[in-house]
Amino acid sequence: MNRLAASNEDEFNATHDRIARVRPAIVTLHAGSLTAAGWMALPNGLVLSSRRAIGYPTDVSIVPQEGMPLPGRVIAVDVARDVAMVLPLEFPGIVAPLQIRPAPAVRLTEPVSVVSPAPGSDLRIVPARVCQLHTGTGPKPSLFEIDIHAPLGAVVLDAEGRVVGMVATSTLGPLAATSTFTTVLPVPAFSALLGAMDRPNLELRDRTPLYRCPTCEEPYDIAAERCVACGRVLPHAFASTPERADAERLVRDGLAAIGVVANRARVSPTSWRFPLRPFSTAEATHLELTLDDASSTLTIRSPVVTLPTANHEPFYRFLLTMNDQTTGDLAVSIAGDLVSIGCAERLDGCGASALAARIEEIARVSDEYRRTLADTFEAGPKYYVP
Amino acid sequence: MGTVAIPSNPVPEFCAACGFPLRGPRCEACGVHRTAPGRRTGLTPDSEPQPPDAELEAWRARDPIRFVGHCIASEVGTTVPTTSAQEGIGWIFSLQATTLFVSFDPGAERTSIDVPLTRVIERQRVPLLRAALELCDQLLPARLCLRDDLLVLRRTAHLPTLTASALRLALRTTAAAAERVATLLVSWFDVRPTFSDEQRANLSWALVGRSRPLKSFSIPPPGRSLPPPFAPQGTPQVLPPPPPLSGRLAAAEALWAAPRAPEPAPGASARPVHRETPHREPASREPASREAASRDADELPDILSPFFVVTSSTSTPLPGLAAPPSTITPPPVPTPPTYVRRATPLPVPPSSPSDLRALYGGMGGTLGGLPGESRASEVPAPLVERGSTRRPGIGEVSSPPVSVPFSMRPPAASSEGEPDARRERPASDRFCQILRDAQAHATTVSIQDKPGVMLILIRSTVFRAILEHGDTLPHTVAHLYRATAAVTRDLAQAENAGRRVNPAAIAEPALYAMERLVSARGQVPDEKPLQIEPLTSATHAREHLSRFLREIEAAPSDPALRHFLALGALSELLVRAKLPAKTDQRLREIVAYAHRDGVKGATIDLMMTALNRIVSQ
Predict the structure, then answer these.
(1) Where is the composition biased (Low complexity) (chain B) (predicted)?
(2) Residue B198 contacts by C-beta under 8 Å, 6 or more apart in sequence?
C-alpha cells in the first residue's frame, strides 16, 4: 500500500480494512502483451475484466496479488458492454469473490473507491465520487461516471466494500470524447451475464466466447475491420486509420499468412506483438512489429538474450562484429539488459507472403543466435519482452 | 508565315556529366539526361531530371552497376568512378560532408553503404561499444559494426527491392545518420575523426576496414529474398584474429569461445591471409653479357624462351637463361618435396610477407629461384633445337598445346590454397563475375572514348575466362570466344581493322554476348571444342604484348581497370603462348598472386613489370 491515497486518517483506516478484504480477489490479467485489471466475481473463480483491455485472447494468465499465476481462458464476452469473463483452468483454492450490490443503484455524488492492481505487487485504491449518471436506451447500457481516471477493468466499490460497477470503455459516443471522467459499467448491466456463469468451474471450461457486433448483435470475425452485417467499424482495441490503411492491411495479411490474427496481436496503434515458434519443438519467441510515423517502414524485433553478467567488452565486440556481415541485413542491438535482433522493412512493394517469410526468418535467426550466445557467453535466453 | 521559337537557354552540346557529345535527350555514353550548364553541382535531388522510371527499372534488372552508379551520380551531382571493392564493385564519394563507401555485390545482388565513423579509443572502449549497440536500435535499417577497432555505420539492401528513389534516399539518410552518430560520439566520448587529411585526399577501400563474418552463424538471406541461394559474392574470408590491441583484450577474446578460422589440417601449413604489400627482393644485377645474350635477334626473352632452355643439375642460371629479376616474381609457393609441378592450375602464392621472407631467406640469396625448380633442373634435360618441340623433363609436366581442347586437358590440380571466396562459389558464378567486372569497366572506358582500350578490355575478359574456366566451363568459354572472335583475333589485325571500322562497333556485339551469358548464368548449349590461335614466335609475342601495353598505358587511371587489363594480358600469354614450364609456372604464380591480393598498387606494378620485362628483353 505504498501509494495509498487517503484524505484523512479515518478514511485511511476504513480503506485499510476494505483492502484487506478485497485484496485476494484483485488480479492482473496478462493476455499476450496486453495487461488489464480484473477481479473475481464468483465462487468458481470467474474473473471479470474489460474486453477491450485484453483484446481477443483465448488463453490468459491470471496473476493474483499473492500466489502463483494461474492459467485462464476467456469463456464469454459482451462486446457492447465491454465485459470479458475469464475462468481459471486450475482451481485457485479458497476463493473470496467480491460482494456485489445489485441494488440500490448508485446515486449522484456517492463516495466510491476504485481498486486496481498497481505495477509490481501493490494494490491501488483511489477514492472517487459519482459525478454523472447515464440512462441506457436500446442496446446501450446504463452507465455512470466517476471523477477520476482509472484503468479499464478496475472494480468500483461502495463505502462498504461492495461492488457497484467496473471501469469499462465508454459507449457514450461523441460525449465520451469530451468527457474528462471515467465511465463505469454498473452491476445491473452485467449481473444477468454473471448469473449465467454462476456454475461449477468444470462446466464452463469448454465455453468459447462469441464476439457480437455491439450495434446489430451479429457475430463477427475478429480479423475483420467492419461488421459484415451492418457494415460498422468493429470496436477493436485500436482502430484503423486511413493514413495507415495500406500498412495495416499488409501487416494484417502478413500475420494471417503465419496464422496470427493481427487484431489479437495488436498492442498499440502502431505495433503488434505475438509469439511464434521457429520450429515445432522450439520455445515460442515473441516478435514485435512496429510501424514508423510515415507508415512506410516496419521494424521487426525479437528478443535474443539478456546481458551476461561478465565479459561485457568481448560480448559487445562480438555483437558489433556480428552486425558487420553475419547478420545479413539484420541488426543486433541492446536496450537495457536486453539484446535483441531486428530489421527495418520497407513496405512499398512488399507483399504479404514476403513479409510473412521475413518474420519467420527472424524468428529462426533469433533462435539460432539465442542458443549460440547463451552457450558462448552464458547469456540468459530471452523469449519475451514484458 | 510561322515563327520559330528560339529557346532562351540553348541546349548544351556536350554532356554535363561526362563531356560526351550529345545527340539526343540523353548522353549516349553515360546515360545522364541533357542538362543545362552549371547544373552538375548543387543539384537538389528532387529537382534533378530523372530518366523514365521504366528505363531505370530496366537498368536495375539488366545493368545494376549502372543503376547504382546513376543513383550515386544523381545524388552527388557528378559521375563517381567505380573501383574494385571487397564485395564487388565500389564507389567512394562524399555526401553531406560524409564519406560513403558504396559497394555492389553482383552475386548476392546486394548493395552496401559503409561509413567509417571513428576508431575505438582504448580508455573509453567499453562505454563506446555499449553506446554503439544502444544506438543500433535507433538507426535501423542501418547499424553499427566493428572492424578491428574501427566503428562503421553499415546499411545493406537487396537491390531488386530498391527503386532509384529508395536507393538515393538510402544514401542520403545513411549519410545523415552517420553525421548524427559521429556528432554524438564526439559529444559523448570526444572521439577523433576517422580520417586524417592525408587519408581523406587518397580514399581507398582499405580505410573502411576488413569485415569478419563469423562462421558459426549462418548469414540470413536478404529481406524479401526470393532468389538466389548463392554464397554472397566477394564474401571475405574469415581471417584469424588480428594481433590483439592489448593483453587484456587478447585474454578477453579467448573467453568468447567465438568462432575461429578452421584449424589447418595436420601436415598442412597454416597460411594467414596476406595483408601487406608483396615483399620485393632487390633487382638482380645481371651481367651485361648475359643480358645481351638474352636479346638475340630472334630469341625469346628468358622468361618466355622455351627454345634455349638448358637445364642443368645446378640452379645457377645459364647464359641465355638468366633468371628473371625477382621484381617480377610473386611470393613463391612453399612446395612440399614430393610436389610435381603442373602447368595448368594456378598455383597459390604464400599469403604473407613472412612466408616470403622465410622462403627467400632460406635460399641463400638465389634470387628468382623457386622451390621445385632446382628439383626439376636436377634432372638433365636434353638440349632442344630451336623451333623443335620441347620435351618436358622428368618430374615436370609441360603446358598442353594450346590447340588441345580444354575439355581434353588434364583436370586442374587441387586448389586448396585458393581463397575461400573463390573456391566456395560455383565456377559459373565466378565466370559471370568476370563478365560483370568487364561490363563495369566498359562503362568507364566508353565514357572516356578509348576504343583501343575497349578492345583489350574484351580480350582480357575472354582470355581470363579461358585461363580460369576453360577446364570447368569448356562450352561457355568456347561460346564466349566464338562470340567475340572479331575482337580476340590478333591485336595487329584488330588495330588495322580498327582504322577502317569503328572499334565501338566491333566491341558492341562482344559486350552483348557477355550480357547474354550473364543472363544465362553461364549456361549454354554444347559448343565445338575451343581452338585458339597461338602466338607462334617470341617476336610475335613481344609485338603483341607491346601493343597490349600501349593500350594499358592509355587506359583511364583506374587501378581496378589496370589490374583487370594486366591480368588479361598475362592470361592471354599463358593461353596462347607455348611457354617453358618454368616460365609458365612463374607467370601463373603472378596471376594467382594478383587474384589473391586484389587491386593493389603493388600487385599492378608486379604484373606491369613482368609484362615490360617480357617485351623489353
Answers:
(1) 259-271
(2) none
